[in-house]
Amino acid sequence: MSLTQIKGVLFDLDGTLADTAPDLVQALNLSLQDVGIAAQPLAAMRYAASHGSFALVDAAIPNAADDLRTQVQQGLLAHYQRINGDHCALFTGIAALLDWLELTQIPFGVITNKPARFTRPLLRKLNLHLRMPVIISGDSTKHPKPHTAPMLLGAQQLGCVPSQILYLGDAERDLLAAKAAGMLGGVALWGYLGENDKPLQWPAHAYFVSPEQLHQTLIERLAC
Fold first, then answer.
1. Which residues, in sequence order, are CB contacts of 204 under 8 Å at separation 6+?
2. Do residues 175 and 56 touch, judged by C-beta distance below 8 A?
3. How far apart are CA 102 and CA 80, in angstroms?
4. Hey, how many other C-beta atoms are within 10 angstroms of the C-beta on 129?
């Protein structure tokens, strides 16, 4: 498979399309403060932001008792519902990339494991919801990534066969899902990769250090 085949582009949300860590870590810290635990610095928690609420809790209070872990996670979700999107922004270069995709009539969208009650309000705040024919959340299908169900639904809604879709993500499950669905997998190296991540071992077709590099690569490959 080759990037010259691309007829559509799909993105993971947290850590790939948008920098959501500031909101997520703020929600985590508000929940930690509710139970008398000190707040954590954004830089130390950032790597966990792609992996869900429990990953953030475990990064902040490793080996916590189950009841405390659940209490902090539930508080995080409650606070996040209120502040979702307040401090979030597209990664530098993403806006220009999306404009170019529209100009070249390449449809794009999002497949995320974030629940729909957070995904859709966030994309509305980012003014993207009306530009995307595909918005698939973690609860849009019975199984989230790395299962193929959300990926195949995304391909159907995009109107492209999977082999013509570039799926970009910053977590191993994103690339496993793309491979299983027959999509081209691209690693967003600008995302929330932790020190234990080994992206070169993920089943990817391409690696991109920045949205600008991705944009330029697509321009060059699609001109072939």
1. 175, 185, 186, 187
2. no
3. 31
4. 15
Do the beta carbons of residue 50 and residue 191 sit within 8 Å? yes
Question: Phi and psi dihedrals of 90, rounded to 5?
Answer: -65, 145
Peptide bond into 146 cis (omega under 30): yes
What DSSP string describes 58-120? Answer: HHHSTT--HHHHHHHHHHHHHHHHHHTTSS-EEPTTHHHHHHHHHHTT--EEEE-SS-HHHHH
Annotated active-site residue 197? The verdict is no
Per residue in 8-44, pLDDT (tens digit) is 999 999 999 999 999 999 999 999 999 999 999 999 9
The residue with tokens 């992206």 is: 199
Q: Which two tokens stand for residue 1?
A: 């498979």
Number of residues that make up the chain: 224
Question: Please, is 213 exposed, middle or buried when counting C-beta atoms within 10 Å of its C-beta (0-12, 13-18, 19+)?
Answer: middle
Answering whether pTM is above 0.90, one says: yes
Q: Please tell me which residue in 12, 14, 170, 197 is annotated as part of the active site.
A: 12
Distance CA 153, CA 159 (A): 10
